[in-house]
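Could someone model zinc ion with this protein?
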Amino acid sequence: MPKSNFLDNPDIISVFSNRCNGNMSLSYGDTKDSLDNRKRFLKRLGIDYKDLVCAKQIHSNRVEYIKESDRGRGAVSSEDAIDDTDGLISGRSNLALAIFTADCLPVFLYDAKTPAIGMIHAGWRSSKEQISAKAVESMQQRFGTRLGDLYVYFGPCIRNCCNQVGEEFKQYFGDDLINRDNRYYLDLASVNKKQLLDAGLKENNLLDSGFCTFCGNEEFFSYRREEESSGRMISVIMLK
Ligand SMILES: [Zn+2]
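Reply:
Sure, complex below.
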């Protein structure tokens, strides 16, 4: 079952924080407690907050291969985070990859055979640039990942119930854009799902949390709802 091969898998840690865990970003929202929040959240998982690998996220489709020498980049200061990247992949054990979101889709990837992992920050721009497909391709090139061994999990993001967008999104997403009562809605999860299935992911290997950050705002941060003051949730994946 995909569930036991992903979320409950004893060989990996894959987790996202909630609003109650506090802001996890060192660059956005109220950052004064962010390091303490990270420390507390990660300690429970057995991860040293100083070991985290984070990126300077720029809504691109860039996927970076993370090496042992990258350990700790962006963990204590955003200054030395991996430059201009929205996807991290690695085959190292005990190296925790992190991305930060408030409405964008966190995509967790796990190649159970190699083993190898990936963590993706997929907002609309990155999704338009096919970041999920790009990540799969990067894992295939780097690790020889076979699609039958690949498992994917979608964390919380703004869903089609709430993600109203302008008509100009038609040119980016075509028929994937949902038209409801003459308003347009973008479903980030289904756009990325389509990319992954087109790339060859097995549908049974994809698990979606289904959470909407906007209508689930009590539980999650939502940039759309809170704007500049919004904190960020952390999504982490690590090979044990
Ligand atoms: Zn919603």
